[in-house]
Amino acid sequence: MPIQAISWSPSGAVRIIDQRALPEAEITRDLETADSVAEAIRTLQVRGAPLIGIAAAMGVVAATRDQRAAPRAEFLQTVQQLAGLLGNARPTAVNLRWALDRMVRVAEATAGDSEALWERLRAEATAIWDEDRDMCRRIGEHGLRVLEDGANVLTHCNTGALATGGIGTALAPIYLAHEQGRQVHVYVDETRPLLQGSRLTAWELMQAGVSCTLITDATAATLMHQEKVDVVLVGADRICANGDFANKIGTYGLAVLAQHHGVPFYCAAPWSTVDATLARGQMIPIEQRAATEVTVFAGRPIAPDGMAALNPAFDVTPAQLVRGFITDRGIVQPPFGA
N or C end of the chain, less CB within 10 A? Predict the structure, then answer.
């Protein structure tokens, strides 16, 4: 993939593509503090469950560069505080907390002074990034089983290189199918209200040369009724033990439509997205975002002044609507253990 959503800058800061600017401009930003990383996650400069976990882990490293001469106990306390700050940036995606918990455990288990701890944390954050690239590739390889030559795929939100450290989750099988010369066409849901489909997924697919068509979210039902969709591939921000999962708002509606029309519906996500501590979907915290994301479009009001708006960032799809979960461990079925 020509797209790299995150990297280390030469100075050791976290370098990201500011996804708010796409597709008009490709702007990179260097984030040097935990506050700036947390703000980037909150404001969707960096987004996607796997990617925000990577960004948070790297953020711990960038934010402690100047603490390497501190006493060990003080350094550890700083790491724990930063993990708390970053972990609160967004509540729904489990990968964020998973990556930060891993960083804290590594810091606590590493012998030596603060310099040694910092070096170990940098290596661990880089390992989380490297592992995500490998996981994306494995998800793609397993997902090839559900994509026949000539398949028409419907996808929602953005689940590609801009959402991960590699080639994506639900887009990974599509990229590998394209790499192998299979003819695959993607219908891209615009994904209101923030248009991650039209702004990000369409841009990614066109960069990669994958055949795609942008649709409004409301068009999906008509396409399924016309038998123009062979499979639906979506990502996930948190998967419960029973297989209920949270993903971008609108996913649940697609799952219901797919079941009604007999279209296979798959969720693609790394195993780190499974949260076996939650028994069912009703237990997932759902982020509520600002009403202005719904009432304002491109800086212009599209609703009466003072209009109330409900804006959940995610919905929960019941496990019984899912044909299978495409993970780096294969295509699996719930229930899921730790």
Answer: C
Give burial (CB, 10 Å; 0-12/13-18/19+) of 121. Answer: buried
Using an 8 Å Cβ cutoff, are 48 and 22 in contact?
Answer: no
- Residue 237 designated active-site: yes
**Average pLDDT score over residue span 116-142:** 97
Report the alpha-carbon distance of residue 188 to residue 119 in Å, rounded.
Answer: 42
The number of residues making up the chain comes to: 338
Residues 145-332: name the CATH superfamily: Translation initiation factor eif-2b; domain 2 (3.40.50.10470)
If you count DSSP H runs as helices and E runs as strands, how many of each does the chain have, helices first?
A: 11, 16
Assign 271 a pLDDT band (cuts: 50, 70, 90): very high
Six-digit token pair at 109?
A: 């288990």
Report the pLDDT value the prediction gives residue 91, as an integer from 0 to 100: 87
- The two tokens of residue 73 are 């106990």
Contact predicate 235/163, CB 8 Å: yes
pLDDT at 337: 86
- pLDDT (0 to 100) of residue 1: 64
Grade residue 298 by pLDDT with cuts at 50, 70 and 90: confident
Backbone phi and psi for residue 90, each to the nearest 5 degrees, phi listed first: -145, 135
Q: Which fold has domain 6-138?
A: Four Helix Bundle (Hemerythrin (Met), subunit A) (1.20.120)
Averaged pLDDT of the chain: 96
What is the pLDDT averaged over residues 231-249? Answer: 98
User: Quick check: helix, strand or coil at residue 157?
Assistant: coil
C-alpha distances in angstroms, 268 versus 100, 201, 235, 271?
22, 15, 5, 10
Distance of CA 336 to the CA centre of its chain: 20
Q: Do β-strands 231-234 and 152-155 pair in parallel, antiparallel, or remain unpaired?
A: parallel
* Active-site pick, 217, 237, 275, 315: 237
